[in-house]
Amino acid sequence: MPGRLEGKVALITGGGTGIGAATARAFAREGAKVVVTGRRAEPIQAVAAEISGLAVRGDVRDDQHVAEAVATAVRRFGGLDVAVANAGVTAGGDLAMVSNEQWEELLGVNLTGIMKVGRAAVPALLDRGGGSIVNVASVAALAAGPETASYVTGKTAILGLTRSMAYDYGPRGIRVNTLCPGWVRTEMSAAEMDALGELRGIDREAAFRLVSRHLPLRRVAAPEEIAACCLFLASDESSFVTGAVLVADGGGQIVDAGTLAFAETDT
Fold it and tell me: Which of 16, 105, 146, 198 is most deeply packed, by most CB within 10 A?
């Protein structure tokens, strides 16, 4: 049976680790030819070798890099059908704490980078008669956490960008959707759990349990679970879905924070 992306070509930014790497593997299993990008050469080269794909090292803030990534997909694989704008960074701090440099770097990667990937991908997608763009945001696009002003701002803005892209390019066959994951086991979240663990005097696994204790599913996600959501949005299974927000957060968005005082804290 043909894979769900058989004959398709995909570009995945931030493809060396975590959600991006898991998505690259899932797409390849479903028949896609995949180009992965990232700022570190070794991880993206390892993923590309594993899936018989291609690696293009660079920063999504760099117009020349994103143009070359798209051109590589077209030149080596014949076109582009799917773009997953997944590259992202995190930083803490409330508005008074965040420096101009931190603000500009975070929004440059998390928001402007997504815009630049989309802008570079659209002409190639149109050459194929349409396609799918998946903009990876976060549940931080929907609710704020403590001291995350720049992160929340960037992720929230992705929703508006996605809606605008979906409206403008839908008539020409391009679907654009946002994926909002909650806690996922990645290098980034592991570092955050280590910081939380140091603050609370607990180890990494205990920190993961702590942040997920009020989620209805009582756990964090594996990268492969978020990759499955990317696969759905990339494939024809979501052919009538555009401008949408797919939340994959273990049920966190349905929890009424004001009632948590009544909950059992050890379950």
Answer: 16
